[in-house]
């Protein structure tokens, strides 16, 4: 009886909060690959409701801290978004995405309360239990208003829950803070932004050893929150690695991700105009990198012979990291004990996969999206995962860390290799892909190898490739299998694609519906640029015809 009364007080408070942020009419929200993402002005009600779900999730997990990140990553400035972070610093468990979508789409406050109650009942959650939520946002202008909506929702619980605002920071820092907060051993690191910098800086100093100071590095911050992280981090490493930040304008309207950042560089395959104009890369042996708007993605590049743009994307980073770690494992005498593997998606360039396989490192292919790669990487003792677009990290299992800490080295070289492997596990963000942490990883490997970007680039040559966006009446008819490499629907389309691919030297092509945009994506690669282009066009045409056929059939049925 008492319980029911308590609930009604809580639901009245939640209703009062939700009434202030009604759902906009005519919009259907969906918790996609990386949370909710759309125009920031549409999102206040969604953010409030995501806050409510964060509380439920925390209660379900015995009060573990859940993270809420308000960001739209590389999207244009007017967009915003929100995603939830699970206790180990991972993306929200997939089965909960449907709950998020459900709450976000309730038309009225009464519907919202009913949906909230039904989730709580189905999952046996005591809605009066304690909970803990930590949140952050990037630099988008719509951020403060959205955080206000989040706080309004969370305030409905009063002192029943613990709420912590860590302010404006990068997505990976929020993931770190969530993981560190929930780490009962206290070994992962201090659960603050400062704790993150200290952890990375300490491990980086160990890894650089007497190789420093390293050459200055130009970093395009996409006019986003990475600029803040970079400046703060610099204070912790002094001149050991001078970080020359470019595109750091956080106040200029429309500047975020505009003609700069990792997504621009990867999709346009060119330098950001700001970098080109400043001539940073014309000096020999200089390379640069770009973060995306929330600093969880990074790509590198340089000018070959001072002229030709060369991209060093997530695939190249994966190769650099995997080979280096493989060598350290061998030097540590632990080849039999530690299983190293690489995780990629179908977008990984075929040459990279072949190159890694030739070095006897197993490769797993998963569907697109960090959560898929992350879970597959957990199956290795040390799992290197990267999407070609620059999202990625390296995961060390608890058992490996134990093995390393208890190893009894038989030589100074073994001891050194073990020390470096442990430091790598600390410099690399174990929760999620992290541009800053990946940057440190790359610079460490280059310093150890004595490589510049040219030597790194020599590992393998990318096969020419094309990525095409195809607009179709209904992308939901495109269903995939085999880690998105094959279509199962529309019926018969895959056979036609296979036939087109078989006619092209080193041809490979696949089709998948986008998880973030209303389109279907076609990827094609081949031995030559013109063949890749031709294959992409052929497959795009097949997709359009297939989609039109299904639409016509449906129209026929209805008629
Ligand atoms: C999201 C994913 C990214 C993926 C991209 C694919 C996260 C954090 N982000 O941005 O990993 O590459 O979606 O977009 O998972 P698409 O489905 O539109 O091709
Ligand atoms: Mg991002």
TrEMBL record:
Sequence ranges assigned to domain Phosphoacetylglucosamine mutase AMG1 in this UniProt record: 209-299, 313-451
Domain Alpha-D-phosphohexomutase C-terminal: 467-536
Gene3D superfamilies listed in its UniProt record: Alpha-D-Glucose-1,6-Bisphosphate, subunit A, domain 3 (3.40.120.10), Alpha-D-phosphohexomutase, C-terminal domain (3.30.310.50)
Pfam families from the UniProt entry: AMG1_II (PF21405), AMG1_III (PF21404), PGM_PMM_I (PF02878), PGM_PMM_IV (PF00408)
Keywords tagged on the record: Carbohydrate metabolism, Cell wall biogenesis/degradation, Isomerase, Magnesium, Metal-binding, Phosphoprotein
E.C. numbers: 5.4.2.3
Family annotation (PROSITE patterns): PGM_PMM (PS00710)
Gene Ontology BP terms: carbohydrate metabolic process; cell wall organization; UDP-N-acetylglucosamine biosynthetic process
SUPFAM superfamilies on file: Phosphoglucomutase, C-terminal domain, Phosphoglucomutase, first 3 domains
Catalytic residues (UniProt): 73 (phosphoserine intermediate)
PANTHER family membership: PHOSPHOACETYLGLUCOSAMINE MUTASE
Catalytic activity: N-acetyl-alpha-D-glucosamine 1-phosphate = N-acetyl-D-glucosamine 6-phosphate
Pathway given in the UniProt record: Nucleotide-sugar biosynthesis; UDP-N-acetyl-alpha-D-glucosamine biosynthesis; N-acetyl-alpha-D-glucosamine 1-phosphate from alpha-D-glucosamine 6-phosphate (route I): step 2/2
The name this protein goes by in its record: Phosphoacetylglucosamine mutase
Family (UniProt): Belongs to the phosphohexose mutase family.
Gene Ontology molecular function: any one: phosphoacetylglucosamine mutase activity
């Amino acid at each position: 009886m008492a319980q029911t009364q308590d609930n009604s007080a809580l639901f009245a408070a939640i209703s009062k909060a939700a009434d202030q942020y009604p759902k906009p009419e005519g919009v259907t929200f969906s918790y996609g690959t990386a949370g909710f993402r759309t125009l920031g002005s549409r999102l206040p009600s969604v953010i409030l409701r995501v806050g409510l779900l964060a509380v439920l999730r925390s209660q379900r997990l015995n009060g573990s801290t859940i993270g809420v990140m308000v960001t739209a990553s590389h999207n244009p400035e007017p967009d915003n978004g929100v995603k939830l972070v699970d206790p180990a610093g991972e993306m929200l468990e997939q089965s909960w995405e449907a709950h998020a979508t459900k709450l976000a789409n309730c038309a009225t406050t009464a519907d919202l309360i009913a949906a909230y109650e039904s989730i709580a009942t189905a999952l046996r959650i005591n809605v009066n239990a304690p909970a803990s939520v930590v949140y952050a946002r990037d630099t988008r202008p719509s951020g403060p208003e959205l955080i206000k909506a989040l706080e309004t929702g969370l305030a409905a619980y009063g002192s029943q829950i613990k709420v912590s605002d860590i302010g404006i920071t990068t997505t990976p820092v929020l993931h770190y803070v969530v993981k560190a907060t929930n780490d009962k051993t206290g070994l992962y690191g201090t659960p603050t932004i400062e704790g993150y910098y200290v952890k990375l800086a300490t491990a980086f100093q160990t890894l650089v050893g007497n190789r420093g100071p390293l050459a200055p590095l130009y970093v395009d911050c996409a006019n986003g929150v990475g600029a803040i992280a970079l400046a703060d981090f610099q204070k912790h490493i002094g001149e050991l690695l001078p970080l020359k930040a470019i595109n750091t304008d956080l106040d200029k309207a429309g500047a975020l991700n505009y003609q700069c950042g990792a997504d621009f560089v990867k999709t346009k395959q060119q330098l950001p105009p700001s970098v080109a104009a400043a001539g940073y890369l014309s000096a020999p042996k200089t390379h640069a990198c770009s973060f995306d708007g929330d600093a969880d993605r990074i790509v590198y590049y340089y000018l070959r012979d001072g002229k030709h743009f060369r991209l060093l994307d997530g695939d190249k980073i994966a190769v650099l990291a995997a080979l280096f770690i493989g060598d350290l494992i061998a030097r540590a005498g632990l080849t039999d004990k530690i299983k190293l593997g690489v995780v990629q998606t179908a977008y990984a360039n075929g040459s990279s996969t072949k190159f890694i396989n030739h070095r006897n490192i197993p490769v797993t292919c998963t569907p697109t999206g960090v959560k898929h790669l992350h879970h597959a990487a957990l199956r290795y003792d040390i799992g290197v995962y990267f999407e070609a677009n620059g999202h990625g990290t390296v995961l060390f299992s608890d058992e490996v860390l134990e093995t390393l800490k208890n190893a009894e080295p038989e030589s100074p070289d073994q001891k050194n290799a073990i020390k470096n492997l442990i430091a790598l596990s600390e410099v690399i963000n174990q929760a999620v892909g992290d541009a800053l942490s990946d940057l440190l990883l790359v610079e460490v490997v280059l310093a150890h190898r004595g490589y510049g970007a040219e030597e790194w680039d020599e590992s393998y040559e990318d096969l020419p490739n094309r990525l095409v966006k195809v607009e179709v009446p209904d992308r939901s008819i495109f269903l995939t299998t085999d880690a998105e490499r094959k279509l199962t629907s529309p019926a018969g389309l895959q056979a036609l694609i296979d036939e087109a691919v078989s006619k092209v030297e080193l041809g490979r092509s696949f089709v998948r519906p986008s998880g973030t945009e209303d389109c279907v994506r076609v990827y094609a690669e081949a031995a030559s640029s013109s063949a890749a282009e031709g294959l992409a066009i052929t497959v795009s045409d097949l997709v359009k015809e297939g989609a039109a056929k299904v639409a016509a059939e449906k129209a026929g049925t209805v008629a």
